[in-house]
Structures are given as structure tokens and as C-alpha cells.
Request: fold
Amino acid sequence: MIRFDAQENAFYLDNGRITYCFGVVKEGYLECRYFGRHIRRCQGSARPSYFDRGFCSNPDPQDKRFSLDTLPQEYPGMNQGDFRSPAYVIQTDDGRRVTRFLYQGYEIFQGKPPLPGLPATYVEHSQEAQTLVVHLADAHTRAQIHLYYTIFQDYDAICRHVEVVNDGSHPLWLERLMAMSMDLPRGTYDLLTLSGSHLMEKVVSRRPLTADTVVLDSCRGASSPQQTPCVILTDPQTNEHQGQVWGVNFVYSGDFQGVVQTSQYGDVRVQMGLNPLTFGWNLEPGQRFVSPECVLVYSSAGLNGMSHTFHRLYTQRLCRGPWRDRVRPILLNSWEAFTFSIDEGKCISLAKQAAELGMELFVLDDGWFKNRVDDRRALGDWVADPVKFPHGLGSLAQGVRDAGVDFGIWFEPEMVSYDSDLYRSHPDWVIRSPFYDPVLSRSQLVLDLSNPAVCDYLVQAVSAVLEETQASYVKWDMNRHITDLGSAWLSTGQQRELSHRYMLGLYQVLDQLNQRFPQVLFEGCSSGGGRFDAGMLHYMPQTWASDNTDAVCRLQIQAGTSLLFPPVTMGCHVSAVPNHQTGRVTSLQTRFAAALGGNLGYEMDIRTLTPEEQEEVKGQIHTYKALRETVQHGTFYRLLDPQQHNDGGWNIVSQDGNTVVCCQYRILADPLRRTTVVHLQGLDPEATYRRQSDGVCFGGDELMYAGLSDQPVRQDFVHVLSVFEKVAE
Ligand code: GLA
Reply:
């Protein structure tokens, strides 16, 4: 899959469907040549013209046509005549930031090496992928940069990251380090990003690229609900089903920067890496720094095509552990029903009721630990409240299991309240400046995970509860962003390393817990989808998609999330009405229809349901169980975008191709009761599919090319769920 063509001085990464090509020019510089649909060779038919342009500096004085400012580059530096965004900036100990990293050589090997301490995609057999490492070196500092590229046989993705090694005798300071940089040729592109906020995560925003630099970033200590570490470029005519897409996603959960820079000559630089605003790293002689990785996906089959590659790669080769391939339990979560006023009696009666309705897991959310009567106290003290749980958590968990469902529990381990025993005994364990009172958010502070003692405490505190309860599920929350970046643990010279060291500490804690409790299903959360990113998926194969459980808003949030992450990674719950966040009243049916587009759960006091509603919920659970394998492990297609239309819709095709689940949503009633038709995707055009509800058979070709209509009624917030089974030949 990877070869070096000595005649062309070019590297080819090619799996028969995509080709990534770059060359070595002037014996030292890496020139981006092509990333797109598979081509046999890349000999320069589309090469831009170079001539002696004004203000262009020339590293080769004999060749005035050659300038780094116009060269499409793989990993551009600073201070060498390319005035666009640099991929790295390294300061030497004399305060200068001039380096000149030139190509030295390469290695190609089977498989993909793990990234020490970092989440990353992986292979199970070395034949699944090949890796290229390109070595660059700087003669003056004797530092090296190694550029890693992995291509997979079965996924149309290239993974990139970099390593910096200080082989010199003086310390270096890493000031900026992108995991990847790529220059796409001049053209007309649209840029898609996933922006948002708490309660409205992953809103798709699309705009044409004309000029200038667009910077996407987070300096919040989390990938954040405000931005997603991903850049998606498309042809202007690209839609869900056709057209070219280049998607770049960072496998990291902390501060990041994504750059999309249209140069003066119209080519487009795309970069993704650590946010230089909060990143800095001392590299002492002999030390090595490894960046997180970035996944680059190319699709010529529209946005769904790109999503399929991310979905398959992430569920099969980023998520890990026994839950990776299992169907996920239908759960009942205590939060929206009881918030902090939860106790043993309520838990047991909820668990009994949950079991009766067919649910499989009871999750005790916030409010269970000592003194946690509201959000102003007790975070950090992970021992059960003796008043609410007089018999302890072990006995509670057993009681829940005796009622017929598994037991799961909520933590927010990275945090501490001022009013907590943990803070009183370790005031130096929090992130803060010594000179100012720390800024609070939700009345809490963030623990300093750069300090190994803090990480050890977290592993021990969470483990003790998991051992006592034998819990099978953990919801891992993170409900504030980081301010006052300062650590009592790190030296003066290391303070700028805190943001990244925090992430390394967190990943290490999660890794240890994964290893100690392989049977526990971890679900990530950050006030909803505030840290719904590829980094977290390596340790927790699902994430609570949003604190906004309103069915209508959820359609949009889940559709945006699905650009990168499939239904099996999304926690989606039916909650009470009027909805806590919007006040909107939707039917139980509609709420279920929205939640069935992911991992189904309920988040309400189910004891207050009327007998009719109980029957309805039982029916929903029965339906979901029958569709679960398809919904959670099938191929997901977005059909109608609820952000742009009054309708939403998707279909999922089971792995064996025999079951198709399609859900169409109509948000507001149309007085004209016009029909909306969706064109199903991924069916066999030659096959026949029987609709379960009425036994009517349709050809796959008809469902895809003529489409499927809804049944407009005089009501807001309605849906049509259709399930088709392929008829045996
Ligand atoms: C966050 C989560 C909620 C809930 C609360 C508990 O907001 O997103 O689901 O767990 O914290 O405090």
C-alpha cells in the first residue's frame, strides 16, 4: 500500500480506493501532490505553474521559480519564506525561532505502532495497515521531526501524527505543533464545521471558502461543545450522497487548533493540532515528544461516504474492549427525574419498575455521595452518603440487580468542590494560579491531573466504588472548563505544559480503569456532548450526546454528531415533558422515535407513568430490542437534514443487509399535508423488501430511486418508523 517511487521522488499511499501522494523536491522539501480518489500515478498533470513572483523568497538562489511560499507542503515550518500558517514552531535556547528541517529518509513497515499514552486507531493484525515514517532533521539543533502516515487496507483513511526528538545538546521549546498539515490545490471548496454550545452541540455550519484564514479552536481544557476538532472540505455541489469530501478529525479531547487557510494564490492549507495558545513543551536533550493523531478521510460518495469511513474506523479500530462489538443496554438514568434527591428507596423502586418494562440497566446519576445535596459541594469525596444510602452502595447495587437490572453509577472524577474533604486535605491538588482566587464554574474546581498523586487517587477512588458495587457501567462526567492554568506540581518552566499534561494524566487514568475493569461499559459526558470526540471513544465507546433531551432538538444534534460518530456511540434518552430544556411537549412516541437513533435510555420517573404509558414504553423497548443489532451495528445514512428542513430522516442497513430501519420525522404540521419522500440508501436494488407493518413488498430499487413517502397528519412532531426485511430469493 505504501511505496517510494525513486524516479519521481514520490511517496504513494494507496489502498486501491484512495491515493495520497507527496514528493521530495530540491532534495529537502516535501511537496503535497494529491489526496483523493485512487489514481495509478501522479505525474504532475495538475501541477500549478511556478514563476518568479514578487515577495517570494528562494531557498535555491539558482531557481527563482521555487519558493516555499507557493509550494504545496506536507509539514511547513516558519521563518523560511513560507508566510502561511506553520505546522510547527520550535524555539531554541538562544530565544530564536529559526530552524530548517530538511528531508533525510524514510521507513515503511507493516501495521501501525501505538502512540504512547495517547488514544489512537490501531490494527489487530499487522496486515491491516502500513505505516510510513518520513525523517526530517535540522542540522543546527540536531533535532528531528518524524512524520507518521498510516494507510489501512479496509478504511479510506490516512492517520497522521508527528514526533519531535531532541538529539542535540541544548533544550528546545515546542511552541506550536500540528499533528498534520496539508495543502489542497486551488479550487472551489465549501468548509463544514461542527460548532455549538451546551444544549446545542454539533451544529453543522457550511460556507464557501473564498479567502483568509479560518481558525477553529478550543482553549477550554476539553474539545468542547463550542467547537469540534474537525475540518470538512467539500466540493460546492457535494451533498449527503455524492461529491468529494476531505474530512480531518483530531483524536484528542483537549485544547486544539484547526486552521483552514486560503492562500493568496487560492490553494488551501488545512492543519489540525495542539492549540498553541495553551500548549508549550520543553524538550530536553535526548527527549522525544509525540503529538496526538489526526484521521484524514477522503470520500467521493458525499458526506455519508465520509461518515461511513469514520463510523467503521472508529467503532472497529478506535473503540476497544469487550463492549466494542456488543449491543448496548437499554438504561434508566436517575438524573432528570430526581437530580440530587435520590436515595435507596427510590433507586430500588425505579429499578424494579425498569425491569418490569424490559430495561436492562439502572444508572445512579449525581447526588449519591456524602453531602451532595446540590451542585455546590462534595465533588471529590467518592463515598456513599450514609443518609441517602444507609446500607451502603454494595447492598444498593445488589438490590438493583435483585430487582432484575444491572447497576451503573455516575462520577465526575476530574473535579473537586471547595466544600469537600478532598479539597480540605489537598488544596494544592487543583489547577489554579497561586496569586489569585480561582475562578469557579458550577461551584467547582478542576483537579491537577498533571500530578501523578492526583491520578493515583482517582484510580483508587473510582476503583473502590466499582469493586464494592460490581457496577457494569460508569457515566464519566466533566462539567466545567479549565481556567487559571497553573499547577503546584509542575516546575516554573513546565507551566505551559499543563493543558497537555492534564490530558495525558486523564488518558492514563482511563487506561488503567479500562484495564482493571474490562467488563465495565464507560459512557463519556461533559454536560452532554461537551467532550464527544474521537479521543474519548478510545476509552469509552459511547457518549451522552447532549443534556438537551428535547426530541426536536435531538434530531439536529444527533444528525450533526453523526457526521463523525455513529448511533452506537450516542446516548439518547426519552425524558419527561414538558421538556426540561425547552418546555416543549412532544408525545412519548416522538420522544422514542428520536431516541431510537442511538443507544436508547429513559431519564424520567417511570413510576409515574399511567398504565397505558407503561404499555407503550414496554412496546418501545420490545421494538428497540428487535432493531437494536441493526441500529447499533448497521450502516447509517442521513437522508434528510432536520437543520435545514421541517423534516428529518435516516435509514440504517443491518450488517448482513437483511434488515432496513428507516425513520422519517415531520417537525411542524403542514396545513397542505404535502408528502415528503425520502430515498433510502444502501439497499440491494435487485432485492425485494417486505415492510413489517403491513407485509407489503417493495423492490430495493423502488425504495431507493422512487423513495418512500410519509403520511402527513394534522399534528406537530410526528414520525414514521418503517422496518423492512429482505425477502429470500
Ligand atoms: C451533567 C450531565 C447530566 C447529569 C448532571 C449531574 O450536566 O450532563 O446528565 O449527569 O451533570 O450533575
